[in-house]
Design goal:
CATH class: Alpha Beta
CATH architecture: 4-Layer Sandwich
Number of strands: 15
Bound molecules: zinc ion
Shape: globular
Largest sheet: 8 strands, mixed
Number of domains: 1
Distance between the termini: 19 Å
Strand order of the largest sheet: 1-14-13-12-11-10-9-8
CATH superfamily: Ribonuclease Z/Hydroxyacylglutathione hydrolase-like
Order of helices and strands: EHHEEEHHEHEHEEEEEHHEHEHEE
Length: 367
């Protein structure tokens, strides 16, 4: 079993109002790197680095804007990811945007950005550093932040599979629920968001960033109801999964298809992290999953991935792979802390030895 101390810190420590040590360390190291070639860049918020120890620079920076799988409208799925420290973020899902930016700003997560005289920190990041949105599906807990903040956002692409764009077009940006801030659909088009249709398995180059995005369909109480994104920058990649049920319950085989894509990237060491949901505790009945995973089902899926990665040694195929747990559904029951329950279940079932990361809103980490 392997769990980073970062994950424990992120679970038990509330976001600090003061200076974030890891961000300052990153900023100081970046400055040192620019001046003299420092190579001890922190690879995660709570990873300790001994004096003189050399670690490679992280491939990706992640700033969670929202991490919960429901109930709390100020903390719903959204993750800013940028290659290294370049602060050009793609927002993977957008359940909560401004609420998460405010928490991250209070944690000094954006301390290395140039100070703007005309905008708040969160306004600066929203309008000038989020360069696009990759939406896994159009459920409210994944798009509400984008919809609400569309009024003050700048023009940018929305990357999504056709079924997601169809729902946004017909049911959200239709001048009935909300003005049409997009470039397609009913009525006058405000052209703020440009729909970019993602076809399964076809990489979309992201301008001159050296990065690309590829979408894969997922089954979420039905096939083709959600999607995953493979975000590749140079030789590094992260895999972000939106909501998904287990193949055995969904009967669609879409996770197995995704694992076939991920396996060679793991084998070659290029996949730096997998974002995947664990919505309910493992005692949840299969017929009440509503297209979601439990710790038990998640680990069964990782067993499938391990066998595809190294058929000779599946038990060690995923050792050390960073698995970021998303979309844990909070409970209103006083007696039930689903976060702690799901965390302890995952740790107990982690025979693969993956590194479990439990993100916290506004707390940056590195992959
Ligand atoms: Zn959903
Ligand atoms: Zn959801």
């Amino acid at each position: 079993m392997q769990t980073t101390s970062a994950s424990i810190t992120m679970i038990y420590v509330k976001p600090r109002a003061g200076i974030s040590v890891n961000v300052l360390a990153g900023a100081a190291c970046l400055l040192t790197f620019l001046l003299s070639g420092c190579s001890t860049v922190p690879s995660s918020p709570a990873t300790s680095i001994d004096a003189g120890q050399k670690v490679s620079a992280p491939a990706f920076e992640v700033i969670p804007l929202g991490t919960a799988g429901g109930l709390n409208e100020s903390n719903l799925s959204s993750y800013l990811i940028s290659p290294g420290y370049n602060h050009r973020y793609i927002a993977f899902d957008a359940g909560s945007v401004m609420a998460g930016l405010k928490v991250a700003a209070a944690n000094d997560a954006f301390a290395t950005l140039p100070v703007q005289t005309d905008l708040t920190v969160e306004g600066n990041v929203l309008t000038r550093h989020i360069t696009g949105y990759a939406l896994s599906h159009a459920h409210l807990d994944h798009v509400a932040g984008l919809v609400i903040n569309a009024t003050d956002d700048t023009p940018k692409p929305v990357y999504a599979m056709p079924f997601t764009i169809k729902t946004l077009k017909e049911n959200v940006f239709n001048w009935a629920l909300w003005p049409n801030f997009t470039n397609e659909g009913s009525g006058y088009k405000l052209n703020r968001y440009r729909y970019t249709y993602m076809q399964a398995g076809e990489a979309q180059t992201l301008g001159d960033t050296g990065c690309s995005l590829t979408a894969y369909p997922l089954s979420h109480a039905g096939a083709d109801k959600s999607s995953a994104f493979l975000y590749q920058c140079d030789d590094n990649a992260v895999l972000y999964l939106g909501d998904t049920g287990p193949d055995a319950v969904e009967g669609a085989g879409q996770l197995a298809g995704l694992w076939k894509t991920a396996a060679p990237l793991i084998k070659s060491g290029r996949l730096k992290g997998v974002f995947i949901e664990a919505s309910y505790p493992s005692d949840r009945a299969d017929n009440a999953l509503f297209g979601h995973l439990t710790p038990a089902w998640l680990m069964r899926e990782l067993d499938t991935l391990a066998a595809l990665t190294d058929i000779e040694n599946p038990a060690s195929a995923l050792r050390g792979l960073k698995v970021i747990i998303t979309h844990i559904k909070p409970s209103l029951n006083k007696q039930e802390n689903t976060l702690l329950k799901i965390k302890s279940e995952l740790e107990a079932l982690n025979t693969q030895g993956v590194t479990l990361i439990f993100p916290q809103q506004g707390e940056p980490f590195y992959l």
